[in-house]
Amino acid sequence: MLKAVILIGGPQKGTRFRPLSFEVPKPLFPVAGVPMLQHHIEACAKVPNMKEILLVGFYQPNEELTRFICSAQQEFKILIRYLQEYAALGTGGGIYHFRDQILSGGPEAFFIMNADVCSEFPLPEMLNFQKEHGEPSSFVIMGTTANRKQSMNYGCIVENQQTNEVLHYVEKPSTFVSDIINCGIYLFTPEIFQHIGAVFQKNQQDMLDEQTNGNGWHRAEAIRLEQDIFTALAGQGKLYVYKTPAFWSQIKSAGSAIYASRLYLNQYHKTHPERLFVHTILLLTHTLGPNVSIGTGVTIGAGVRVRESIILHGATLQDHSCVLNCIVGWDSTIGKWARVEGTPSDPNPNDPYAKIDSETLFRDGKLTPSITILGCNVTIPSEVIILNSIVLPHKDLNRSFKNQIIL
Ligand code: GTP
Predict the structure, then answer these.
(1) Which of 74, 154, 307, 314 could hold 181 in an S-S bridge, CB 3.0 to 4.6 Å?
(2) For residue 356, what is the DSSP state?
(3) DSSP state, 102?
(4) Which of 58, 86, 97, 114 to mutate to test ligand 1, by most ligand atoms within 8 A of the CB atom?
(5) Sheet harboring 287-288: ordered strands across?
(6) What gap in Å lies between CA 296 and CA 137, rounded to an integer?
(7) How far is it, in rounded angstroms, from Cα 228 to Cα 234?
(8) For the segment 113-139, what is each residue's pLDDT rounded down to a tens digit?
(9) CA dist 60 to 12, 22, 252, 288, Å?
């Protein structure tokens, strides 16, 4: 049997997602109309012999997460549990801490997935690849091709082109190493815990040698899969890369959530045409799209124009308002004839290997032009223009703004 573990991180991580992560943990933010994590869960539930999905993170158990888990269990008919780390243990430390839970029932292999990626999740293909490559106990990383410049923002993989064995692994190198990058989706066998365990023991020994104690246990348990495990396993005949031709993107910032929505909406034409139905109805009376996701209970007035945006539940777009490249927060209101607009951060469409840039909020002391985000319960008056701005929750604006964070 198989299992899957989704690394959902914790509260201090979603900083590039503010102010949206104030209201909902980032892994539950809706992408293409459903919580980000649901795409992972749906893909896992389709894999034959998948028995359980474990969410590992350091969020305090909360109502949204519990509600999501309950409804996903019912919808996908699979066991889902949340395992909470006592502190951020890193991408390898969390799974090591919960190894007994992961291994209970005797899975022969398990997937590990970063929550903050969007993908077609070619999990059956990874299983086949594992059977065909290396020994049965080899570990598989899903990889994709990036362009030379952007590859350095990711984990870079040098492979043996005949066997697909990973020969070198360097996380975010400072000079070009390879254009094959790590997608944050892995297939492991239980043997991975021997390798993580060896790092744990070495960390403990190092601390004894340094005579430090204090926060010792945590320091030994904090382990990163990428730097601590993959770099060491490369070239040992154990680690292989499955290069996917399918779509993949990271979801680090709110801007990348709009891009990820577009990738999933394109996929819905094949997989979930019913999820696109709502869009067709709305298209008859308004000019909505392309790439628009509308939450439940949203009110849209006459002559409204929306494109490349996510409108969260309870929002109101009054008559003739125009919303482009935005995320409109829960219960926010945009007045008549107002224009709320952002700058898209999409990858270069002329470069097939371009990825979305993980833009920083500020460049040269100025806010980087980006999508406009309205936090929850924001009111934009009629006939104003809000451009490339981030508006914190519960603001009642009274004029136009451009390139600002409105606190
Ligand atoms: P940067 O944010 O640019 O460093 O990119 P990255 O892809 O290297 O991110 P990182 O390794 O921090 O996170 C990858 C995934 O692992 C995300 O889905 C995180 O939510 C998750 N993650 C990161 N740290 C932890 C951790 O300490 N515990 C758990 N459970 N998950 C984590």
Answers:
(1) 154
(2) -
(3) H
(4) 114
(5) 287-288, 305-307, 322-324, 339-341, 385-387, 401-402
(6) 46
(7) 11
(8) 999 999 999 999 999 999 988 677 799
(9) 12, 14, 21, 38
Distance of CA 328 to the CA centre of its chain: 19
> Who's near 284: CB < 8 A, 6+ residues apart?
none
Would you say residue 7 has pLDDT above 90? yes
Q: Is residue 280 over pLDDT 50?
A: no
Residue 391 tokens, joined: 């508006």
> What is the pTM for the complete model shown?
0.93
Query: Is residue 12's pLDDT more than 80?
Result: no
Q: Of 5, 6, 12, 13, which is best to mutate to test ligand 1, by the most ligand atoms within 8 angstroms of its C-beta?
A: 13
Please give the full DSSP string across 241-287, using - where no structure is assigned: EEE--S-EEE--SHHHHHHHHHHHHHHHHHH-GGGGHHHHHHHHHSE
Of 73, 45, 57, nearest to 12 by C-alpha is 57
Confidence of residue 74 (pLDDT cuts 50, 70, 90): very high
CA 116 to ligand 1 center in whole angstroms: 8
Q: How much is the ipTM here?
A: 0.96
* Closest-CA residue to 238 (of 311, 189, 280): 189
**What's the token pair of residue 273?**
């045409």
